[in-house]
Amino acid sequence: MAHLPSKPLRYSPLFYIVVACFASALASGIVFGWAGMVLILIREGEFQELCNGHFDEDGTCRAQSAVLAGIYPWGAVSTMLGFSIWGQLIDRKGPRTTCLAGCLSIITGLLIFSASSSKTFNAFTVGYFFMGMGGPGVQLSILSFANLLPQVRNTVLQCFSGLFVVSSFIFSIFQFLNLHFDISRRTLVLSYVVVPVCILLCALSYWPKTGIKLPSQPAQPSLPSSSSTTTISSASVAQHTDKKEASPDNESPSLSTSYEPSKVAVAV
Q1: CA trace torsion 22, 143, 91, 194 (10° rounding)
Q2: What are the tens digits of pLDDT across the range 199-226?
Q3: Closest by CA position to 201, among listed 19, 3, 24, 21
Q4: Which of 4, 42, 148, 209 could staple 13 via S-S, CB 3.0–4.6 A?
């Protein structure tokens, strides 16, 4: 079974897999749940001043919808960019450093996004950019955890990929709480800062400094090929023939005729 390269396992490998699953489900791809967040922003009247009192049937206007639609691409692009940046970092510094940097980026994005307002501090795009940038740092840092269970390694990797998509459901939960319990966006986002902070602490405690490797496989003994067997057999026949030819052939004919019939019968 594989082991953490920096220190021995303190808990079962399944414990590390479960912690990694929670980290992926709660932080890796939250920006892709923009549909839930944009409903909260519309309900709170963000960028409503752009409508100049003229609203469509859904309570928005074209200018407001255009500005809100322009925020999401920054988060999506920063996520794709983050995979390249954090991929280089994890090769050089390892999973622990990569996860810490990703969590700090998410925390920064959440704080900026919670403090943003279209009227006083319009930094929604900046906050969403940092949130999207940090997600891949968390996702990439947990991939080597699958090597802790080499028998089901591919299954674990598929779970990590699926949980990346599950994390986009977080903002839909925010929208539900905002609609039915009237919890403000600022309160929801600030409260969620606790999640990347907890992941950061877990990374300090459980994430390895270097990637987890698959256990080495024992070398299998190689069987001789058919060609080598044929060569060995031919060499043995040739050696036997040489010995037979090297034996003295000038034995007296009288010796061969001196054998008793009973002995000859036994020999035959």
Answers
A1: 0
A2: 999 999 999 998 888 876 554 554 454 4
A3: 19
A4: 148
- For residue 126 the two structure tokens come to 């900046």
User: Environment class of residue 244 by beta-carbon count within 10 Å: exposed (0-12), middle (13-18) or buried (19+)?
Assistant: exposed
Cα 184 from Cα 191, distance rounded (Å): 11
SS3 117: strand
With 0.90 as the threshold, say if the pTM is over it.
no
Q: What is the pLDDT of residues 171-197, one digit of tens each?
A: 999 999 999 999 999 999 999 999 999
How far apart, in whole angstroms, are the C-alpha atoms of residue 157 and residue 153? 6
Rg over alpha carbons for the chain, rounded to the nearest Å, is 36
Contact 166, 51 (CB under 8 A): no
146 and 156 Cβ atoms separated by less than 8 Å: yes
